[in-house]
Amino acid sequence: LRAICGGGRYDRLLTLYGSPKEIPCVGFGFGDCVLMELLKEKGVMPDFAAKVDFVVAAYNLDMMGQAMSVARKLRLAGKTVDIYTDAAKKVGKAFNYADRVGAVKIAFVAPDEWSKGLVRIKDLRNFGPSDPDEAKQRDVPLDDLANVDAYFGLAGASAAAAAPTPGAPK
């Protein structure tokens, strides 16, 4: 294997890029690939499983700004968020993406729900204790996204947030 780190003086380097005179320089490089191979060889390579709390998917490109607003609100609430950048009219592609990045929930930003001040959140990993379909999906008010976990009966649920959203599918 090569060295993990290396460096030296590069006084003439800037003349290659147009400097009229030599300028004293130093630099170093870090061999991340070498380090990774050493960790594997020693059996101490950490397992960094892909996982995010939410993938936010816009119904169409016109809803992308609103989707970014939802992502911001979720991040401000301390959630890890990824944005599916293609239009999600074909929800299967959004679900596949969410599964690849290890998302726990997916937030769909669509015109009908948005006009009612709601975002449809679908739990991809955790389901209700008695009825598997009960906790899969909720329409969450935009102004209460900080309490999104409460809508799924998770820790820290407030009484208001735990109540069913009017018009939300079961």
Features:
single chain, 170 residues, alpha/beta, Rossmann fold, 2 domains, five-stranded mixed sheet, two-stranded antiparallel sheet, 5 helices, 23% strand, disordered C terminus, Anticodon-bd_dom_sf, EC 6.1.1.21, histidine-tRNA ligase activity
Describe it for me?
The strands form two sheets. The chain has a five-stranded mixed sheet with strand order 4-3-5-6-7, with helices on both faces. Strands 1-2 form a two-stranded antiparallel sheet. The chain starts with a strand and ends in an 8-residue tail after the last helix. With about 170 residues, the protein is of the alpha/beta class. The protein has five helices and seven strands. The model is unreliable at about 155-170 (pLDDT under 50). The longest helix has 13 residues, at about 65-75. Helices cover about 25% and strands about 25% of the residues. The protein has two domains: about 5-40, no CATH class; about 50-145, 3-Layer(aba) Sandwich (Rossmann fold), CATH 3.40.50. It is an enzyme of class 6 (ligase). It catalyses: tRNA(His) + L-histidine + ATP = L-histidyl-tRNA(His) + AMP + diphosphate + H(+). One of its GO terms (molecular function) is histidine-tRNA ligase activity.
Distance between the termini: 58 Å
**In total, how many domains does the architecture comprise?**
2
Radius of gyration: 24 Å
Overall shape: elongated
Number of strands: 7
Chain-averaged pLDDT: 84
Main structural class: alpha/beta
Largest sheet: 5 strands, mixed
Task: Encode the helix/strand succession as letters.
Answer: EEHEHEHEHEEH
CATH topology of the largest domain: Rossmann fold
Number of helices: 5
- Reading off the top of the CATH hierarchy, the class of the largest domain is best stated as Alpha Beta
Report the sheet-strand fraction: 15-25%
Looking across the biggest beta sheet, what order are the strands in? 4-3-5-6-7
Helix content: 25-40%
Question: What's the name of the CATH homologous superfamily of the largest domain?
Answer: Anticodon-binding domain
- Provide the low-confidence segments as ranges: 156-170
Family: Belongs to the class-II aminoacyl-tRNA synthetase family.
Domain Anticodon-binding: 55-147
InterPro entries: aa-tRNA-synth_II/BPL/LPL (IPR045864), Anticodon-bd (IPR004154), Anticodon-bd_dom_sf (IPR036621), HisRS/HisZ (IPR004516)
GO molecular function, one term: histidine-tRNA ligase activity
